[in-house]
Amino acid sequence: MAQVLSELGVGLVVGLPEQAVVVNDAFCELTGYSAEEVLALRPFVDIFVPEARGLIIERARRRIAGDAEPSRFETEILHRDGRRIPVEVSAQVAMTDGQTAIMATFRDLTDQKRVAAELARRARQQEAVAELGRQALVDRDVASLMGMAVNSVARILDVEYVEILELLPDQDALLLRAGVG
User: Fold this and answer.
1) What pTM did the predictor assign?
2) How far apart are CA 81 and CA 36, in angstroms?
3) Would the CA dihedral through 137, 141, 145, 146 be positive or negative?
4) Which of 106, 130, 154, 162 gets the highest tally of CB atoms within 10 A of its CB?
C-alpha cells in the first residue's frame, strides 16, 4: 500500500502518537528528509509548522479519546530546507496490540494553492478592467479615468509606483499624465 500511495504522489506515515514507524518514499520526497531521519524525528509533530503543532496535538488527543474530530484537514509542514508546504492530511486512529496507532496520508497542495491564487489574481484583473470600462461609459473625463487606472494597477500588481506617460509630439520627451506612489 505504501508503494502504491508513493506512485500516486501521496505521502504515508504510520506510527505511534509521538513517532513515525513507517514512511513511504512520497513523504520523504515531500519533506526532503530520508526515511531514517523521519523515523528518528521525535516528536513527529515537529514536521508541522510551529503554529499548527498545538492544534495537531489536541486533535490527535481528542481522536484517540474517541471524540469526533475531522479526519481530513489542511495545514502546512516544513521541508528540510525550511520551506512551508501546504498539505491535506487525512488521519485515522486505531488500536493495535493495545497501542494507539495513527495512519496519515499527506497530499501536497502547492500546485493547487498556486493555481487558486493565479485564478484569484486574474479575477481581480478582470474586475478592474470591467470597472474601468463602466467608468469610461459614465465619466468621459480622461484624467479621472487615468487616475482610476493607475490606482487599480498599483493595487492589483501590489506595487508602489505606477505611471501613465504620454509621448510628446516631438517624440523625445514624456509627459506624466497620471501616477501613484
Assistant:
1) 0.72
2) 17
3) positive
4) 106
